[in-house]
Amino acid sequence: MRISATLYMTDGTISPVRLAGELEGRGFGGLYLPEHTHIPLSRETPYPGGELPPECARMLSPFVALAQAAAVTQRITLGTNIALVAQHDPIDLAKQIATLDHLSGGRVTLGVGYGWNREEAADHGVEWTRRRAVVRDGMAVMRALWSDQPTAYEGEFASVRASEVHPKPLLAPRKRLGKGPLFGPRTLIGGAAGPGLFAHIAEYADGWMPIGGSGLREALPVLRQVWADAGREPDDLYVAVTAVQPEAGKLAHYAELGIDEAVVQLPPAGAAEVCAALDAHQRHLR
User: Fold this and answer.
1) Could you give the 3-state DSSP secondary structure of residue 22?
2) For domain 2-284, which architecture applies?
3) Within a 10 A sphere around the Cβ of 53, how many other Cβ atoms?
4) What is the CA radius of gyration of the chain?
5) Which of 235, 242, 234, 231 has its CA nearest to residue 265?
6) Which residues of 115-125 are buried (b: 16+ CB within 10 A; e: fewer)?
7) CB neighbours of 107 closer than 8 A, spacing ≥ 6?
């Protein structure tokens, strides 16, 4: 099981260049960064974890920050946990992701989420009750642009003509029964366990990115069955648990369940505090 790291990276925390180097030098597997474009002051949506962390309004663009991290590393994976796909133009986002994957030598993992902040989404023109369908269409547009042949997609919320577009992401296409291959970087969908989420994972993603490990023992067999029923290859399913507070027993439990990656939560702090946390977590690396 790989051990990676995440934090709310802002204009006041450790820089992506410094953190990426520290992670690679210590043997961690990857760096994942979250996304918020802005936090409206008129927000009525409650934050899922209680009080809204002030860092949510100060986050760096994950794609710009990960590009800096790519430039100073050779091995670690570079991911989002999560990217708010509904809040992007999918044609432009496909170009950003493919460029990052090209420049990093195929090290991108795209963590996708549906979001929690209604007001933030509304400013992007997203109808809240349809956001999952918006994400599904956006991902279909990106997959069409990442295909090895010019491919069109016509959806309710996003469309693209068959087009010449490069660069292409470097991960090999994955098989789906009767639906054609999936192109693009490894894509993980975040969210709570449920039939709708698992159906979307099996349809257009490569795995699941749950927050924490609660309920995994019960949920994973369900996900694996949905995956198999969709004709996906068992070994292609990837599960990365994020926002982990690591303990030896907890990580052993994840490994027993067949989790592929644990993403430990670092403090949104400067270099000294973050490096101290990495030193403490390093004992969990194999």
Assistant:
1) helix
2) Alpha-Beta Barrel (3.20)
3) 14
4) 18
5) 242
6) bebbebbeebe
7) 30, 70, 75, 76, 77, 78, 101
What does residue 113 show for φ and ψ, rounded to 5 degrees?
Answer: -140, 165
Asked, as a colleague might, if the bond just before 167 is cis with ω within 30 of 0, I would say yes
Residue with tokens 């292609």: 236
pLDDT of residue 178: 79
- Look at the block and give the residue holding tokens 């991911």: 79
Write the DSSP symbol of residue 263.
E
Are 205 and 112 contacting, i.e. CB atoms less than 8 angstroms apart? yes
Q: What mean pLDDT do residues 252-281 have?
A: 97
Write the pLDDT tens digit of every residue in 83-121: 999 999 999 999 999 999 999 999 999 999 999 999 999
Asked whether 137 and 145 are in contact (CB, 8 A), the reply is no
Question: Which residue type, as a one-letter code, is found at position 51?
Answer: E
Phi, psi for residue 109 in degrees, rounded to 5: -120, 125
Half-sphere exposure of 111 (CA within 13 A, CB side): 28
CA distances from 56 to 52, 53, 59, 140, 183 (A): 7, 6, 6, 28, 31
Q: How much is the pTM?
A: 0.96
Percent of the chain residues topping a pLDDT of 70 = 100
β-strand 153-154 against 159-160: which pairing, if any?
Answer: antiparallel
- Domain coordinates of the chain in residue numbers? 2-284
DSSP string, 71-84: HT-SSSEEEES-EE
* Residue 208: both structure tokens together: 């699941």
How far separated are the first and last CA of the chain, in Å rounded?
Answer: 9
